[in-house]
């Protein structure tokens, strides 16, 4: 069964850090770009970051540039999102998604992605 599982979410104070993980099972992420998306209550889902299949290309939303870093370890079949200097507006459910693509590129459009995880809650509050 093809599955993506996010972990690492939680409650953190403003200015704190979290590292999210996205682990794949049932398939190898070697052939997939991976994106992180988030959805806050009452808001539409938005793209946060993505990384190409070989890690050569990454993208970030303007709202997280300089604070979030995406990386991948294909040997562990896992993609990470390091989130620093967290703000209350980062509060959302974070989802990872995989896009099977031959080229070493990634897209921030959710409709590009084939598989989705169930999400992990991130809450930034004092």
Question: What would you note in describing this structure?
Answer:
The protein is mostly beta strands. 0% of the residues lie in helices and 48% in strands. It is built from no helices and eleven strands. It has strands at 3-7, 10-12, 18-25, 32-39, 46-51, 58-60, 68-73, 78-83, 92-100, 115-116, 120-124. Strands 2, 4, 5, 6, 9, 10 and 11 form a seven-stranded mixed beta sheet that branches. A hairpin with a 6-residue loop joins strand 5 (46-51) and strand 6. The radius of gyration is 13 Å and the shape is globular. The N and C termini lie far apart (39 Å).
Concise account of the structure shown:
This protein has strands at 3-7, 10-12, 18-25, 32-39, 46-51, 58-60, 68-73, 78-83, 92-100, 115-116, 120-124. The protein has 126 residues and is an all-beta fold.
């Amino acid at each position: 069964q093809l599955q993506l599982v996010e972990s690492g979410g939680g409650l953190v104070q403003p200015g704190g850090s979290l590292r999210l993980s996205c682990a794949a099972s049932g398939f190898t992420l070697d052939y997939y770009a991976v994106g992180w998306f988030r959805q806050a209550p009452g808001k539409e889902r938005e793209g946060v970051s993505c990384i190409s299949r070989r890690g050569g290309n990454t993208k970030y939303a303007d709202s997280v540039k300089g604070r979030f870093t995406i990386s991948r370890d294909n040997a562990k079949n896992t993609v990470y999102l390091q989130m620093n200097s967290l703000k209350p507006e980062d509060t959302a459910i974070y989802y990872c998604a995989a896009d099977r693509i031959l080229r070493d590129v990634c897209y921030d459009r959710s409709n590009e992605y084939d598989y989705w995880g169930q999400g992990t809650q991130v809450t930034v509050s004092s």
